Amino acid sequence: MLPSVLPTETDHVPVLADEVLATLAPRPGETIVDCTFGAGGHSTLLAARLRGDGKLIAIDRDPTVAPYFERLRRSTSAKVRLLHGEFSQVLVQLASNGVQADAILLDLGVSSMQLDRPERGFSYAVDAALDMRMDPSAELTASDVVNERAERDLAEIFRRYGEERYARQIARAIVKRRAKQPFERTGDLVEVVKQAIPAPARFGEGHPAKRVFQALRIEVNDELGSLERALPAALEMLRPSGRLAVISFHSLEDRIVKRFLRAEEHGCTCPPEFPVCACGASPTLRATPRRAIRPSAAEIARNPRSQSARLRAAVKLG
Ligand SMILES: C[S@@+](CC[C@H](N)C(=O)[O-])C[C@H]1O[C@@H](n2cnc3c(N)ncnc32)[C@H](O)[C@@H]1O
Questions:
Q1: Per-residue pLDDT tens for 96-114?
Q2: Which of 16, 160, 195, 261 reaches 20 to 30 Å from 311, CA-CA?
Q3: Is there a contact between 35 and 108 (Cβ–Cβ < 8 Å)?
Q4: What atom of ligand 1 comes closest to residue 15's alpha carbon?
């Protein structure tokens, strides 16, 4: 039976928890790295599998996760450590200090606590300072991006990271409005986005500002860059037969994970027209399973935030 994780109202409910346990399959004596600790939901379940013998290293760039880590520390006799920082950098540091892992988890994106705390500025549903930093000590905020980037850059951010159809119109409206008064609040941005898109589209799929907020969040936290750098660092840190699991929440992240796993599974980097391999690179991992795992209908009903989750997993070859 799974140990109980008792979420409070605003706690994060771990997504695809059974599937993460099945793919990472932690055993006593092993070292687990949870790159995205959050409320520690996955970490608590993974640490329980160590049965008091082994190590769990938790990473998060948000220092407000500390009380959740204290809760984990009290619940387990395994060795646990929390490292504050951006996961790709921390993984590189750990690897350079000779740390090796048997299982590594990345559960990407923001946590429910970050989304539900209005003062963090992630939500289009409540008016708050336009912030969106996962690490409140980081320099770049969402208001810096909105107030300072060129119109063309803003349109590109909304198009690429939000897949927003009206990216150009929204960027133009932002630049017009900020010439009179810079943006400080999420509410102001929501209003400008609503006015910039054609009326019928305002009532289309989801909240009209949803895609712009997603795009800004990805830009402010360099989410795709972190993921691109973290995957090779995680693979490097894994022992042979070590397991990697990545949960993503939108197609941009999932595409990066899928391409990385495919490339590492293939090994050879020679152009397809080469008759024989000249690079000598061999496969480094095996994707298990080959397709992404999605949440069951029952999980989505219990936790609607799991709806867009995709889990990809792999085993490092010896
Ligand atoms: C979806 S939540 C993880 C929830 C966690 N699995 C649980 O069960 O409670 C993602 C967490 O990862 C952190 N995070 C996201 N990207 C990060 C990065 N590049 N480096 C470090 N932490 C990151 C966020 O601050 C957030 O707390």
A1: 999 999 999 999 999 988 9
A2: 160
A3: no
A4: 8
For residue 57, the CA-to-ligand 1 centroid distance in Å is 13
Q: Which residues line ligand 1 (CB under 6 A)?
A: 12, 14, 36, 38-42, 59-62, 65, 86-87, 107, 109-111, 134, 226
CB neighbour list of residue 223: distance below 8 Å, 6 or more residues apart: 108, 109, 217, 253
Q: What is the CA(87)–ligand 1 centre distance, in A?
A: 9
Residue nearest to atom 4 of ligand 1 (CA): 38
Check: pTM over 0.85? Answer yes or no.
Answer: yes
Question: Which residue type sits at 317?
Answer: L
Quickly tell me which residue has 């022992």 as its tokens: 239
**121 C-alpha to ligand 1 centroid (Å):** 16
Tell me the H-state helices in the chain: 17-24, 41-49, 66-75, 87-96, 112-116, 142-148, 151-162, 167-180, 186-196, 199-202, 210-220, 223-237, 251-266, 297-302
Rounded to the nearest angstrom, the distance between the alpha carbon of 39 and the centre of ligand 1 is 9
pLDDT < 50 stretches in the chain: 1-7, 9
- Provide the pLDDT for residue 256: 98
Distance of CA 103 to the CA centre of its chain: 17
- State the residue for tokens 């009903």: 301
Task: Return the SS3 of 183.
Answer: coil
Give phi and psi for 103, each to the nearest 5.
Answer: -150, 135
pLDDT tens digits, one per residue of 11-36 = 678 999 999 999 999 999 999 999 99
Q: Cis link prior to 289 (omega < 30° from 0)?
A: yes
